[in-house]
Amino acid sequence: MSIWTSDELDRIGGSEELEIASVRRDGTLRSPVTIWVVRHGDDLYVRSVNGRTSSWFRGVQVRHEGHVRAGGVDKDVLFVEMDDLDDEVDAEYRSKYRRYAESIVDSIISPDARAATLKLVPR
């Protein structure tokens, strides 16, 4: 597997939002969606606010690969499901998006969203 460069981590992790598209069964990209992204150490994470039942998350589960765009970086990625860093990722979301209403931030740290935590790994 590949790793993020320091520049990519800074640019994507510092972006307010990330455009993310999953790959369909036939190898084409789905339409991108906009999602919040956080950085924890040298890794980048995203979550589906609507949890594992959202159409976006179900699309990711088809091939576990896609494409991201943020901060001037365009990159093919793998989506790796995570469930052991919830508290750390929650803290990153709270810190990065603290200027938003508490109810909005609470939606991204809800149990449903936590169950849909994905680590982005560059390809």
Describe the 3D structure:
By secondary structure, the chain is of the alpha+beta class. The chain is built from 5 helices and 7 strands, in the order H-E-E-E-E-H-E-E-H-H-H-E. The longest helix is centred in the last third of the chain and has 11 residues. The radius of gyration is 13 Å and the shape is globular. The termini are close together. 24% of the residues are buried. The mean pLDDT is 94.
In a few lines, what is going on in this structure?
This protein is an alpha+beta fold and 123 residues long.
Walk me through the topology.
Elements (H helix, E strand, L loop, with lengths): L5 H8 L4 E5 L10 E3 L1 E4 L2 E5 L7 H9 L1 E6 L2 E9 L4 H11 L5 H7 L2 H4 L2 E6 L1
Antiparallel strand pairs: 1-2, 1-5, 3-4, 4-7, 5-6, 6-7
N-to-C SSE string, H for helix and E for strand: HEEEEHEEHHHE
Helix vs. strand class: alpha+beta
Largest sheet: 7 strands, antiparallel
Low-pLDDT windows of residues: none
* Basic shape: globular
- Approximately what portion of the residues adopt beta-strand conformation? 25-35%
**Total beta strand runs:** 7
What is the share of helical residues?
25-40%
Rounded to the nearest angstrom, the distance between the terminal CA atoms is 7 Å
In the sheet with the most strands, the strands line up as 2-1-5-6-7-4-3
**Rg from Cα:** 13 Å
The number of helices is 5
